[in-house]
């Protein structure tokens, strides 16, 4: 039997999620429909700089091949980055425990699993990864793979609703 405090914690969490879901859903809807949203005054200048750096326009809408290429390119760059960090972590600053590099096969498996957001872990993170190895690879992948997943969901929905065959802009999503 679960302690009453645990059940209360779960009930409070469910209540909190249900309370904020409508507002969060409305915000995401406005963002994905390119409508004004809370925080635009602060975020739009930052986004504009990133778009210029990437050489894209938020108004440009990609077809399937372009969108898929952008997704695979982003994932490929992230894969190479993560693999390099995991296989060279012994030389990174902050390796106070003197942890060695991950073997190539474990680094490959870890990179592939975190990149696909399955997060399989065949190692003990506390004794295999130093702070920077974890921060620069796993944490980045957990953030970006979730972002890629949300982008693909938005494109998937647009694929059904748009009549012109475009899916939106991957870099904007």
Automatic annotation (TrEMBL):
Pfam families: KdpA. Signal peptide: none annotated. GO terms for cellular component: plasma membrane. The chain crosses the membrane at residues 67-86, 131-157. The keyword Cell inner membrane does not apply. The keyword Glycoprotein does not apply. One of its GO terms (molecular function) is P-type potassium transmembrane transporter activity. Keywords: Cell membrane, Ion transport, Membrane, Potassium, Potassium transport, Transmembrane, Transmembrane helix, Transport. PANTHER family: POTASSIUM-TRANSPORTING ATPASE A CHAIN, POTASSIUM-TRANSPORTING ATPASE POTASSIUM-BINDING SUBUNIT. This is ATPase, K+ transporting, A subunit.
């Amino acid at each position: 039997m679960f302690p009453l405090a645990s059940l209360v914690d779960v009930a409070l969490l469910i209540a909190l999620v249900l309370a904020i879901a409508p507002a969060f859903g409305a915000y995401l809807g406005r963002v994905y429909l390119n409508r004004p949203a809370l925080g635009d005054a602060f975020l739009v200048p930052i986004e504009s700089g990133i778009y210029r750096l990437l050489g894209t326009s938020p108004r440009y809408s990609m077809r399937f091949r372009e969108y898929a290429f952008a997704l695979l390119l982003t994932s490929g760059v992230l894969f190479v980055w993560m693999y390099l960090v995991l296989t060279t972590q012994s030389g990174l600053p902050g390796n106070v425990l003197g942890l060695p590099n991950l073997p190539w096969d474990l680094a490959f498996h870890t990179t592939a699993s975190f990149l696909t957001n399955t997060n399989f872990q065949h190692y003990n993170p506390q004794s295999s990864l130093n702070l920077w190895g974890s921060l620069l690879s796993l944490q980045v992948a957990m953030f970006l793979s979730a972002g890629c997943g949300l982008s693909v969901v938005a494109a998937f929905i647009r694929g059904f609703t748009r009549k012109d065959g475009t899916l939106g802009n991957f870099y904007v999503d």
